[in-house]
Specification:
Blueprint lengths: L2 E2 L6 E2 L3 E2 L6 E5 L2 E5 L4 E2 L9 E2 L1 E6 L1 E10 L5 E8 L6 E5 L2 E6 L5 H9 L3 E5 L4 E10 L4 E12 L7 E9 L8 E2 L8 E4 L3 E5 L12 E5 L13 E2 L12 E2 L7 E9 L6 E9 L7 E4 L2 E4 L7 E11 L4 E8 L9 E7 L1
Parallel strand pairs: 3-20, 5-9, 6-9, 7-17, 19-23
Antiparallel strand pairs: 1-27, 2-27, 4-19, 5-18, 8-16, 9-15, 10-14, 10-16, 11-13, 11-15, 12-15, 20-29, 21-22, 23-28, 24-27, 24-29, 25-26, 25-28
Length: 341
């Protein structure tokens, strides 16, 4: 039986890069409301100054991913503001959510709360506003954000409904925003058509205990040549810095991983699944059977073992199935591989 590993040491590896072969990825789950630009929020990006950080018109089920740093120089507040444009009341429910509010923090702990099933909901009258995931008095310099499953429903019939989502940061006037904040740098903002991506990798048969074999995801030059990245559409006009394009890093994406491993060693052996990055520091995160394994500040080209497969008979195979995410502050391409134990 496979076991999730915590506390594994960081190990330098030079994995053999497995070819794509028959590997495939499928996009699903619903919309992704994604907001990481401007990443550092200054006063001119706040609702007090007349701006929202992101806005999209969304329908039904999906995911919200918000990630920023408080660069205002004083405490601010943050929420997902929701407008109901319908002539009937709606309920917006989150079955899984986690929040970040800390100096220099990743959102790894937010993802852990997400997988624990933390929930929130709000009822909104026709033509009215409501909010979810409110955080108040976020200190200057703190990273803050949200990762959450969301569902928009007609409160009378439970049928799928639509609403406007706003990513809003403010000091005291949450009602003054009327347009998109200008973007800064290259991070993404907008909405995508999927957040739950299922990866079926081709079988690998690693024999090198030190280096193993691996695939890469989340970058333009990864195993899938970048086709595993969802496309994010930014509704902002070009004058505000439209950031439409592929989502580098797969941030905000719940990756459903299926990694078949064949034992070609000639004798029975267990194998270890490892995660890391070749793009920069990594915060490896894996979830299996409702339990999460988290690691912090793993340097590039170093890896941590996250799963022990248990014994695989000589000539036999085992598919390691688990969830993986790329927490904020990590860098891509992300590496997922295996080596004999």
């Amino acid at each position: 039986m496979a076991t999730l590993l915590t506390g594994s040491p960081r190990v330098s590896r030079s994995p053999i890069w497995a070819p794509k072969g028959n590997s495939s990825v499928y996009f699903g789950g619903g919309y992704l409301f994604y907001s990481d630009n401007p990443e550092q929020v200054s006063y001119q990006h706040t609702a007090d100054a007349g701006y929202w950080l992101n806005r999209s018109y969304l329908t039904g089920d999906g995911q919200v991913y918000l990630w920023h740093e408080n660069g205002v120089g004083q405490p601010i507040n943050h929420c997902l503001l929701i407008y109901n444009p319908n002539d009937f009341p709606i309920t917006v429910y989150s079955s899984n959510c986690g929040k970040t509010n800390g100096n220099g923090d990743s959102d790894s702990n937010a993802w852990a709360n997400y997988f624990r099933g933390k929930s929130e909901s709000v009822d909104i009258d026709a033509g009215g506003y409501g909010n979810l995931f409110l955080q108040t008095n976020i200190p200057a310099g703190n990273n803050f954000g949200v990762v959450a499953r969301t569902s928009i429903r007609n409160a009378n019939t439970s049928a799928s409904a639509s609403a406007y989502f706003y990513d809003l940061a403010y000091i005291s006037d949450s009602g003054n925003a009327s347009q998109f904040a200008s973007t800064v740098g290259s991070h993404s903002r907008g909405h995508a058509g999927a957040f739950y991506n299922t990866f079926y990798f081709d079988t690998i048969a690693p024999t090198d205990r030190i280096n193993g074999m691996a695939y890469t995801v989340g970058g333009s030059g990864d195993t899938f040549s970048g086709s595993d990245r969802v496309y994010v559409w930014d509704d902002a006009p070009s004058s505000q810095g439209n950031m439409s394009g592929p989502l580098d890093g797969n941030f905000g994406i719940q990756m459903d991983i299926h990694l078949p491993i064949k034992n070609n060693l000639g004798y029975d052996s267990s194998f270890r699944v490892f995660i890391g990055s070749i793009g920069g520091y990594a915060f490896p995160f894996a979830n299996m059977n409702g339990i999460s394994a988290q690691y912090f500040w793993v340097p590039p080209f170093q890896y941590v073992d996250v799963i022990d497969t248990g014994t695989i008979k000589a000539g036999g195979s085992y598919t390691a199935s688990f969830f993986a995410v790329v927490p904020a502050v990590s860098s891509a391409p992300w590496v997922i591989g295996a080596a004999p134990a």
